[in-house]
Amino acid sequence: MNMLGVLIKLQMKEEMRIKEVINLIKMKSIPPYINPDNIKNFKSIREERELVRFKREVLEFMLTDKFISGENRGFELSNENGQIIYDKDLVSKCIEELKGLGWECKEWRTCIYIYPPKEEPKIFKYEIIE
């Protein structure tokens, strides 16, 4: 499969996830898969939902004027007390997807910096990143 085919397949998969999230938001009743026979799958269902929520938060951040203008490219991973509030696996999966779309990403302190190639945020020009 060529690169275009892979990209189209990824886009279709993401669109299906978005439709699933929209259906969950509109949820008028508990989904049928939430039944006693399926309890062994609840953890993976929860993890997938957490990933969808996290990606939605990152997307909302990326659609802000400050991100678009380049004024703020750092997505904060911590709360007001400085504690990291996102699971490392969620962050890694999201970074992997963003990189697959052509973004550069660096984790630093309590942020993920997301930026177009060759537009590294100024903060990296003043401090050494390991």
Description:
With 130 residues, the chain is mainly alpha-helical. The protein has a domain at 42-126. The protein is built from five helices and three strands; from the N terminus they run αααβαββα. It has a three-stranded antiparallel sheet with strand order 1-3-2, with helices on one face. The chain is globular, with a radius of gyration of 17 Å. The mean pLDDT is 82.
Which labels suit this protein?
130 residues, mainly alpha, three-stranded antiparallel sheet, 5 helices, 51% helix, globular
Which helices and strands, and how do they pair?
Elements (H helix, E strand, L loop, with lengths): L2 H23 L16 H21 L2 H5 L4 E3 L11 H13 L3 E5 L2 E5 L7 H4 L4
Antiparallel strand pairs: 1-3, 2-3
Helix pairs in contact: 2-4
Number of helices: 5
Side-by-side strand order of the widest sheet: 1-3-2
Multimerization state = single chain
The profile of the biggest β sheet is:
3 strands, antiparallel
Radius of gyration: 17 Å
Q: What string, H for helix and E for strand, traces the elements in order?
A: HHHEHEEH
Whole-number mean pLDDT: 82
Number of strands: 3
The coarse overall form would be globular
Based on secondary structure, the structural category is: mainly alpha
Give the amount of beta strand, in percent.
5-15%
Distance between the first and last residues' Cα: 36 Å
Give the fraction of residues assigned to helices. Answer: 40-55%
Low-confidence stretches: none
